[in-house]
Write a structure and sequence with these properties.
Layout (H helix, E strand, L loop, with lengths): L1 H29 L3 H4 L7 E5 L6 E5 L1 H7 L2 E4 L1 E2 L13 E4 L4 E2 L5 E8 L2 E13 L2 E6 L6 E5 L1 H8 L7
Antiparallel strand pairs: 1-2, 2-8, 3-10, 4-5, 5-9, 6-7, 7-8, 8-9
Amino acid sequence: MRTGRSITKAGASLAVLAVLAVLAATLLTGCRSSDEAAGDDQSPVTLKAVTGTDRYQVTLSPEAVDRIGIKTDTVHAVTARTVGVPKGVKASVPYAAVVYDSDGSTWAYTVVETDSYVRSALEIASIEGDTAYLKAGPAKGTAVVVVGAPELLGAEYEIAGEE
């Protein structure tokens, strides 16, 4: 009778191992996105060198745009009649559009085509509340990213996660 119990225990152990193997395979497959499971290797971010610069055009997949929640505004014209604006100011952007490089340079991501962005230099005269007044930068009316700009900077510099 002991032999019967040993076989039963061995059979039960094999059954448990088989169930664990199937469960592990299912969980690991479940960790992949549906695109990966279907064999789609499209990256959420594509970088293309901008000729004559050290910058890149950052193109996001539509899913990445949705996840980040990209929102834009425009570069606004500033006239000499605008009260409290420093001399030499040509335009303004929402302060949310301003990103800082590791050396302290100021930039904004401009929209170059659907879901594609390029970092553009800003020369800031002053910051007043939610507005950055510019001595130089993108042309008036240019769309700038106001939500998601830090994520674009991280994507351009290929910084993953919380580095």
